[in-house]
Design a protein that fits this description.
The chain is mostly helical. It is built from 7 helices and no strands. The chain has one domain.
Length: 174
């Protein structure tokens, strides 16, 4: 029995490290993009960088959720067998997306803002201009609900897929 527990614990630790690194990557990309876009509001390059990194973050989140649903088909089938309805399965997927993005925002945005400011100061000094990094609190405050809304919108497709899981077909292979 202890070997099974040790195996389960090692799998949980490995998954936790993977989720943590993904959350840090998403938050860091968003934070750097946020800081870059806030440095020069009129500069289209910084805005394009912010949009591109935002699209990469959304695509990464969608891939992570779809992969997670595919890997956890059996767990979802067991939950449906125990009485979960489609709405509860969809809420499970949405809460997973919210937790991942929330963790990314808490960890990555402050780190991304610091690294974005640092990168901007280095870049401005190389150009020979006076570096004046500015960051609006309104932009940072608007990023949090926008990211959470985007995460839940992205989660609708994997949530539908998970809600349509047929427990009998999935559990038949057991």
């Amino acid at each position: 029995m202890t070997a099974v527990r040790a195996c389960w614990a090692s799998q949980l630790r490995a998954r936790g490290r993977a989720w943590l690194s993904l959350a840090l990557l998403l938050g860091l990309a968003g934070g750097v993009a946020l800081a870059a876009a806030a440095q020069r509001p009129a500069d289209r390059t910084a805005l394009l960088l912010a949009l591109l990194l935002g699209l990469v973050a959304v695509a990464t989140l969608a891939h992570t959720l779809l992969t997670s649903i595919r890997r956890r088909r059996r767990d979802l089938a067991v939950l449906k067998t125990l009485g979960f309805v489609r709405r509860q399965v969809a809420a499970t997927v949405a809460s997973q997306a919210t937790a991942l993005v929330g963790l990314a925002l808490v960890m990555g945005v402050p780190l991304g803002v610091v690294l974005g400011r640092w990168a901007w100061v280095l870049f401005a000094r190389q150009l020979g201009v006076l570096p004046e990094p500015t960051l609006s609190a309104v932009i940072v405050a608007a990023t949090v609900p926008a990211a959470l809304l985007a995460a839940n919108l992205v989660a609708t497709v994997p949530a539908r897929t998970a809600a349509r899981t047929r427990p009998a077909l999935v559990l038949r292979s057991e």
